[in-house]
Every structure is written in structure tokens, then in C-alpha cells.
Amino acid sequence: MTSTPVKDGTVTPLKGIRRTAARRMVSAWEAPVFHLAVEADMGAALTVKGRIPGATVTDAILAACARALSEHPALNAHYGDEAVTTFGSVNLGMAVDTPAGLMVPVIKDAANLDIVGIAASRRDLAQRAREGRLGMADVSDGTFTVSNLGMMGIEYFDAILNVPQVAILAVGATRQEYVGDGDVEAVWRPQAKLTLTCDHRAVDGATGARFLTSVKQHLESI
Question: The whole model's pTM is what?
Fold first, then answer.
């Protein structure tokens, strides 16, 4: 991408993948969305790196989403003007920060990968994204997207839909919180907020809630 100097700044033309992403962001604002949020215990996810060589907390989140999408296929879908298309394969997009801006490479058929396979795919795609070596095939055919800003210290955010996908999950930073209820003595636990954005034309609140609960359960037992 070539930048053109101007008197008071620099003009950087949008090309290729970045241009496509910009157009999708505009389309996303047309969707009537709603947001759902839960807090997940990240204790199990934080042990993944020590238990599974090459794996990270992000891989635990991706694996939990892949499993939940298999159980709740209404979230593994695209919205169109005439129909909602639900997919049998889970093609999991992951937001990656690169020198050229945000990229969303796609882990194909993620529901049929174990966490080791997801970790390997994530490492390869993220590295190629940061090196500017992604092709259109690497960012195409996604059915759901995960955006994790926890490593940047962001505690909570609402992610914008990656249209035509009908949902996206935003993951915040893990924080130690004092948790408990009337039957269990409160203790300090690592907690992270998961926020689901849904296109209300394709997903209703109860369906989104069941999916998000499933993600939480899988993440807490990964």
C-alpha cells in the first residue's frame, strides 16, 4: 500500500483486502444489532499454554466458539436480502492487528480441529497476516468471527459485524474478581467479559443467549 504525501497529511489509498473490509464495515451499520454479555471464568483457559504446546488463551476461545457453533448453527450463518444461509462447516474468522490495519483470516472447518490444530492454523494465519502474505482465499468464506482485545488491556467492547455473518464475539481482558453466590464462599477468580453482537434479522435474543452460554461453558471446561 503506497501513501501519498499532501500538505497537511498523508493519503493512503485503500486496496485489496483493506478496501473490501472498509466496504463491509459500512454495510454492517445497516444491520439492526443487539448485544449480549456474560463473564467467563478463565481459569482453565489460562492453563492451556502450559498443558498444550503452542496453544494460547486465544486458541481456547476459538476452540470454545467452534464447539458452540456446532451446537447452535443459527449463529454459523450469513444474512442475505432474501434468505439466511446456515452452514454445516464452521469457518472461524479471527481479527488480527497488522501493520496494514485489521485483517480477519479464516480458520477453515474449525469444528473438526482439536485445539492443537486450531493453534497451528492460528499461528500460520496470524504470521502471514502480519507479513502481508494473505490471499483472498485466506480471508474468504468466514461464517463467524472472534475479536480478542484482552491482550491490549481492553476490558469490554462491542465488535462490529463482519457482514454477511450474523454474529461476532468480542473478548475483553482477564481480570481478577471476587466472585461467589449465596451458597459458595466468594473467592478471587480470573474473569473475562464476552460480548456477542447479533444481527436481529437472523438471530433472536434467546438463540444468542443459548449460544453465548454454550461458549462460556466450553471455555470454562477447555
Answer: 0.88
